[in-house]
Amino acid sequence: MAIICCIAYCLVGYVSGQGCVRKSFGTNRIVCVCNATYCDNLQAPETLLKSGNFLLYTSSQSGKRLSPISYSVSKTAPSSGNVWQVGSCVTYQEMLGFGGAMTDSVGINLGTISETARQNLLNQYFGPNGIGYTFIRNPMGGTDFSTRFYTYDDGDVDKTLSRFSLANEDFKFKLPYLQYIRTLVPNVKIIATPWSPPTWMVESRNGTEGFTRLKDEYYQVLAYYFVNFLSAYKNNGIDIWGVSSQNEPGDGYYVSFGINSCGYSPDEERKFIANNLGPTLRKYGFGNVTIMDGEEQRPEFPEWAETILRDSTANGYVNGTALHWYFDGVASASRFTTLHNDFQDKFILYTESSYLPDIGQPAVSFGNWTRAEILSSDMIDVFNNWVVGWIDWNMALDTAGGPTYLNNYLDSPIIVNATAQEFYKQPIFYALAHFSKFVPPGSKRIQLNPAPKTTLESVAFLRPDNNVAVILLNQNDDDESIVVKTGSDNYMPVTVAAHTLNTLLYTNQ
Ligand SMILES: *[C@@H]1O[C@H](CO)[C@@H](O)[C@H](O)[C@H]1NC(C)=O
Ligand SMILES: *[C@@H]1O[C@H](CO)[C@@H](O)[C@H](O)[C@H]1NC(C)=O
Ligand SMILES: *[C@@H]1O[C@H](CO)[C@@H](O)[C@H](O)[C@H]1NC(C)=O
Ligand SMILES: *[C@@H]1O[C@H](CO)[C@@H](O)[C@H](O)[C@H]1NC(C)=O
Ligand SMILES: *[C@@H]1O[C@H](CO)[C@@H](O)[C@H](O)[C@H]1NC(C)=O
Ligand SMILES: *[C@@H]1O[C@H](CO)[C@@H](O)[C@H](O)[C@H]1NC(C)=O
Question: Boundaries of each Glycosyl hydrolase family 30 beta sandwich domain copy (predicted)?
């Protein structure tokens, strides 16, 4: 079969690029190493598309990393093979973009390598040969990925926010890098949310890191706190595109959650948005800032968002729902189709994902391909259920998965090794890239009808430049050969090898 395919549909050739410098951490566990003078990057895929060819980019358990092969499109139907039909006439959600978070820890790690290595790192996400990020999540104040607890108005009660000021962390670890990224992506969308309001606003039954809620008398003061933050960032040249009222508002309902938090029920979040945050942003010149509800885990939906969106006042302020991925395994993504059907003018966006350590294992799992499969499988699933984008958590952590003053070490797509003055691109970096590089903002999901009985996972998008990206994941131990057929009867036979993630790119015609 493979030989027949090869004769009938000639391989045009391998596309050369500046390749991955591999470092191995064991069998099938490789990372790509970059430093001040070298980093692998991609030739713009669009420039490789010619009339009559298509591209297949593959990353694999065995160590391929976004390696492209160019094949010719066939005009004749193959005599056999499982045909998958792409239909670009019916379009679904329009994509908003992909990104990662600029926490204090990310800035701290960026500060441990030379300026050229640091630029190479940020260019990997945002540069012209990078993976196409257009979103950044920028916490308002401290998080667990900081070296201390802080807000922008710490101390005794300060109802007029007379003491409000950005922190050293903003000036040292965030703003300079946001400003650099803005030179690469001028219209980068920055979203912000607090992990905790100033502690004097919070009713705390057991410290600042668990069982907390916003005191009734400070709802409006907190809305002014948002205005102060947006103004302070604006004064430093950074416009914030969107906000949500609170990171994981459900966390404050755990008695000893252990991380900066503030608890809101969905109804309390509704009240804050409708009565305080929404009207106050409009009144003070920030009415064009996107407001998101949620910032909670999948099992809370659609109820969480619908509690807010059913209130016509809150609905008038909210543009969409933000989601975190940590409990995705316990609830079906079809609930987002329900949410979309009920409130079709509101977007649904993932705003946090990262790997929690496996019990007894280090947080950073070097070269772990399984993590790339789990992440990309989840992304395919949610994009097939109306989600418009994905923002990962810390963009770069150290070799332990920190720093984190609360010892909440995690994995990251990029791990910085300050001792060696180099950084490692993990398999999950490539999992994100298979989407972010090929599905620019403004792309629309289109119909893809897999052949029956396939075990592949897939999703397809029509891009603003009229190219189509089809993402294909094979988590199985066997290869699967398929023929992708376009609306205009072009045939693209491909073998989706065992344990690979692929992006197929072709021009729609
Ligand atoms: C940077 O990486 C390149 C490619 O692996 C290598 O040739 C070079 O020696 C490295 N530079 C330093 C300073 O380690
Ligand atoms: C909102 O409008 C102001 C003033 O026109 C502008 O400076 C800012 O960039 C806009 N913000 C967004 C997120 O579009
Ligand atoms: C308060 O929080 C601490 C630290 O998170 C925890 O050990 C303790 O059990 C909590 N106390 C109560 C009464 O829940
Ligand atoms: C957010 O929603 C408001 C109210 O519907 C609307 O005026 C604004 O244009 C929306 N912003 C974005 C970025 O969609
Ligand atoms: C890779 O990550 C997965 C998911 O976190 C985990 O179950 C597995 O043990 C890891 N593999 C290795 C070799 O650490
Ligand atoms: C980081 O670099 C140092 C110095 O080259 C090396 O000894 C160490 O093994 C590296 N750490 C990792 C996780 O690769």
Answer: 442-504
Query: Once rounded to an integer, what is the mean pLDDT over residues 393-408?
Result: 98
pLDDT at 3 over 80: no
258 Cβ closer than 6 Å to some ligand 3 atom? yes
What end-to-end distance do the CA atoms of the chain give, in Å? 28
Confidence of residue 208 (pLDDT cuts 50, 70, 90): low
What are 385's two structure tokens? Answer: 């259920």
Residues that are catalytic? 248, 352
Measured CA to CA, the distance from residue 91 to residue 148 in angstroms comes to 47
- Nearest CA, atom 9, ligand 4: 288
pLDDT, tens digit (0-9, with 9 covering 90-100), for 166-181: 999 999 999 999 999 9
What is the set of domains in the chain, with CATH numbers? Answer: 3-93+444-507 (2.60.40.1180), 96-436 (3.20.20.80)
Which two three-digit tokens encode residue 302? 């659609």
CA distance 256 to 7: 64
Q: How far is CA 30 from CA 59, 60, 358, 369, 437, in A?
A: 11, 10, 19, 9, 21
* Atom 4 of ligand 6: nearest residue by CA position: 420
